[in-house]
Amino acid sequence: MIDDALLVQMLIGALLGVSVYLPLAAGQLSLATPAFYAVGGTLAALLSTGWPLLGASSDAGFPVPSFLLELLLGGLVAGALALLVGRPVLRLQGIYLAIATIALVEIVRVAILNLPFTGGAIGIFGIPQPFPTAAGYLLPALALLILAGLICQRLEVMPLGRAMAAIRNDELAASCMGIDTTRVKLTAFVMSAVLAGSTGALAAHFLNTWNARQGSFDTSVTMLAFVILGGSRTWLGPVVGGLLLTALPELLRPVGDVRLVLFGLVILLGPVLFPQGLITPTRLEWLGSLWERSASSKEVRP
Amino acid sequence: MIEAIVQILLNGAAIGGVYALVALGYTLVFSVLGVINFALGALFSLGGYFTYLLMGGAISANGGLPGWKLPFGLPFPLALLLAAVLTGLVSLLVERLAFAPLRRRQAEPLLYLITSLGAGLVLVNLLQMLMGAEGYAFPSTALAQLPEAVMIAGARIRSVQVLLLAVCATSVIALTLWLECSRRGRALQAVAEDATTARLLGINSDAMLRLAFLLSGGLAGLGGGLIGVSISLPGPYVGIGYGLKGLAVLVLGGLGSVPGAIAGGLLMGLAEALVPSEASGWRDALAFAVLFAVLLLRPRGLLGRRLVEKV
């Protein structure tokens, strides 16, 4: 039921969940992730189909180093875009920020749909494959996720991460404590964009085709649902939420047309049943203590 | 020249009127509850399909009940009105399922975003199951009593456009009068201003909240029916695009401001009508580009009130 291709999709979902989580960890409800994801994906699709230097024409498949270079470039270009729009946009607060970022997603979507070189409604297809099977994508996707997880874990003890948490709790108080709130928010926003851009580049190769529908309003809110249902207090929450919610529509495929209704019901009832999300710091601590107890009981018992 | 201008103005105002209806739908709920009801786009779709079915339209071969239709067909004005009422009732159901459980435990506003969108997803996908994914065109007899076009100041205007404008204007004016002059309308405004004080003054704020949801769904349903008859229903997702445009209009005018929503809607409709047809692909981005620019210049919208956060 869960094959390699679905596993890669789930990992992509988890990566996008972390991308939405990063600004939220600094208290900023940004729904811009699909825009950066679309930018990264479009860039990779254009480069790999249109730039022979990368080795697209060779018969032995697309070279892996070029693929990795694209991941890097996708992240960098998305990050640069975030740096450009972030400063004015992050002055907005709460729901205004959310709607402005939805606007950004729509502008990017319509631009990709209408620009002369991005393939219009059909998009770009025949994106060359660096790996012979879907399983090949597991490693880079997992590596990207582990990298993102390590960075988030480090953030919890770093000054930047503490500043983000302080802004989330009370922005005014944080700025009174001498935290440069604009810079911290911008950093979180750019990190989120870099991650989404790299993920987009990976997804473009994995999906083999790329079009404007990849980043739209529905995807914005589905990604936000990853974070809210998974739990927005630790980075593990969006990872779990992204993995589960990406798998759900596929696992529900046997029930037929009702599956999307059921998916909607999960998103509707999730916050009602689990207002804190599935993964909360207290539940993690509880799991940790359970783990320690079972470990120590083994030591005592011999 | 004059004719061309009149044509553009009227076309823009007609579509802008629909945007204003949607934006007012958001405004009603936002002003009372302080959150945005993301299910409104789905309610818009629902209004369109209700109108189609009430007029005696049949479900297509790919729908859940192929060929089924109501045993009667209502004339368009009656169908539109009834569809708006039905959509309002569904909106009440959305409140019950997606908003009430969170409100009872005073959850953070972010969660409403997710639950209301979940409700919207459920509605749109139910529509898709029942009606199929393809588009529906209203029967050509829908507006048979009206002439195809009328001449206004020398310009030929489709009479559907005039109808659109008239219905939007009437509902907007009626809503404004009701809010300002009736006892209930003023009570709704009082709850929007300060729910606790309103409750202390003996206003049933829960009932007012439900009333806001009923009206908001009704406005969205009206919009859906009007777009259905004047253009067509391209599929269950039709309302999502209008819902997003309404959101842009809402913020453009300033959250929670009724005149702002009306002015923003008209402005947006006119701006879109001015886009030349060669660049029509970019038209959908215009609303958001305008929104983006306005937010950067006036972070609280054109007519929004400046809120000072108290510490």
Classify the beta-strand content of chain A into a percent band: under 5%
Biggest β-sheet description of chain A? none
Report the mean per-residue pLDDT of chain B as an integer. 87
Q: How are strands sequenced across the largest beta sheet of chain B?
A: 1-2
What is the structure about, briefly put?
The complex is a heterodimer of chains A (302) and B (311). Chain A has 302 residues and is mainly α.
Q: What attributes characterize this protein structure?
A:
heterodimer, A: 302 residues, mainly alpha, ABC transporter involved in vitamin B12 uptake, BtuC, 12 helices, globular, B: 311 residues, two-stranded antiparallel sheet
Describe the structure.
Chain A is mainly α and 302 residues long. Chain A has helices at residues 4-25, 33-50, 64-89, 94-114, 135-155, 159-169, 171-176, 181-207, 217-230, 236-251, 259-273, 281-300. In chain A, 72% of the residues lie in helices and 0% in strands. The mean pLDDT of chain A is 88. Chain B is an all-alpha fold. Chain B has one domain (2-297): ABC transporter involved in vitamin B12 uptake, BtuC (Orthogonal Bundle). Chain B has eleven helices and two strands, in the order H-H-H-H-E-E-H-H-H-H-H-H-H. Chains A and B meet through helix 4, helix 9 and helix 11 of A and helix 3, helix 4, helix 9 and helix 11 of B.
